[in-house]
Amino acid sequence: MNNIRSTLAAVWRIAAPYFRSEDKWAGRGLLAAVIVLELGGVFLTVLFNRWNNVFYNALQERNQAVFWYQLGYFCVLATFWVALKVYQLYLNQWLQIRWRRWMTGRYLGGWLHDANHYRMQLLGDAADNPDQRIADDTQRFVEQTLGLGIGLLSSVVTLASFVFILWGLSNEAPLHLFGNDIAIPGYLVWGALIYALLGTLLTHLIGWPLVGLNFQQQRFEADFRFNLVRARENAEQIALLRGEPAERTRLLSRFALVVENWIGIMQRTKKVTAFTSSYSQAAVIFPYILVAPAYFAEKIQLGGMMQTASAFGSVQDSLSFIITSYRTIAEWRSVVERLSGFERSIENAAALNVDKNIIHVKPDGHGAIDLEKLVVSLPNGTPLVAADSFSISGNERTLVTGPSGAGKSTLFRAIAGVWPFGSGSISIPSKATLMMLPQRPYFPVGSLKAAIVYPAEAGAFSSDRVRDVLIAVGLPQLAARLDEEAHWNRMLSLGEQQRLGLARAFLHEPQYLFLDEATASLDEASEAALYKLIEKKLPATTIVSIGHRSTLEAFHQRNVVLNRDGDRFELQNRKEDVKVP
Fold it and tell me: Up-side HSE of residue 422: CA atoms within 13 Å toward CB?
């Protein structure tokens, strides 16, 4: 019961926001229409049940007129049934896509809001493979929640409708054993109830491990797909290292987990299917076993017997909803758990950004970036960089050097506001624009123009201006390919990508430009030419560079060096004292 309550609470938490959203009236209207059509289907089922009695009595009595009339009546009912099912499916699918569209937008918004996606990775949260949770799990959640919810409602209404019919038929066809009538009020109802309860209990005892197995299967499948994508993204490095055999072994080991877990699902599903199939087949003849003695004792006619079997089947099907839907319920519960975990991870990442015990980035009216009592730590709490009363003055070019692993890049991330671990504050001039250029810049798949001007829209800059900066950074061969769509991180060399990164900076003209070894893949002459171009095109921009080449010192007014002092690093520059424990 605790599991049921927690699952239903999670479902309500995930599902309810849509029906209170800006699309609530369309969602509520479609849901109401689907429910009304489902109830209409139950009503038609009751009419079909009554038709069984009249039709089969006409056959037994060889009443041709009633027979043909009932065939015509059946055609009318069947026409309504077909129309109802067609539109119920259509409106259900319409509701599914609207609901899924809203959920996808909500999860994408939460995941990509204010660097939550990055902090989720830093936290090492359990929300593995967010792409699968947003793309696959939302689709399964909407489809299965509607299917199970409408199915449960239909079962309840069907049960309420047919219990009265079956109770009345129990009085018309009393239990007849050994030539005697045994008066048990509603014995057919009690028979269906006991049969369904036993079946449900046994099905759950056999099939409960499917919930965990389905959860693991989705995880292993997503991990395997993720590693396939990584192999595709790094095809060049794999080829250069002749790493195909190692990669094949690694991927097959991932797939082995998929196979092993799938075999577990197969074995458990085999047991569940064997029982549920046996249960369903026995349910076909069980009502006849109960009613046949009364029929042979001529207590009821053939039509009454057929109506009783039909009503019993409807009641038994309603009570057996969990049995027939058990595999779907098991998969649905695993989907609910994955989406709940994803929401918790987003909430944890968002909460980390407002925690008091983190680095606080705040706007300030001064014209410099000020670091006050700053301690940048690793996620496990180990101090990495400490800085107090350290400033990055406006319109000044600063070079930061030091050994690898000293925390230079992590300090940049803290200034950008995406690295929360640590304490102290970073004051950024109000309304200042910052741009970080890493060693390997990111370019979205799409047109070359859209990739260069990212994160702005493609139309934010004229094509002529984009061509000009391409020529300026030494990529004239790309000037005619602005409308070409490709995966540019794969198509271009790292040196070309770094030139494109600088082209992006020239277009956006940020007030602060942080270059994290953003020209390291270029030769010294090309690097020098680009730094001269930065001075020319961005004269009002404050430049902060991380680099290891001594030739970079000529292009910076200030040189900050990280030197090891015992078990710590000390950042030395004039009077500034920035220490790294």
Answer: 31
Residue 337 has which token pair?
């758990």
Give 2-217+270-350's CATH code, choosing from 1.20.1560.10, 3.40.50.11540, 3.40.50.2000, 3.30.300.30.
1.20.1560.10
Which tokens belong to 250? 């690694």
Q: Which of 342, 355, 344, 516 is nearest to 420 (CA)?
A: 355
Interatomic CA distance for residues 367 and 433, integer angstroms: 12
CA 63: distance to chain centroid? 61
Q: Is the pTM of this model over 0.90?
A: no
- Residue 68 tokens, joined: 């043909």
Helix (H) or strand (E) segment spanning residue 145: helix 138-172
Residue pLDDT, tens place only, 255-273: 999 999 999 988 888 888 8
Which residues contact residue 428 at a Cβ distance below 8 angstroms, ignoring those fewer than 6 apart?
A: 361, 362, 363, 364, 369, 415, 434
CB 421 within 8 A of CB 376: yes
Q: How far separated are the first and last CA of the chain, in Å rounded? A: 52
How do residues 210-252 score in pLDDT, each as one tens digit? 878 887 887 888 888 888 887 877 776 788 778 888 888 888 9
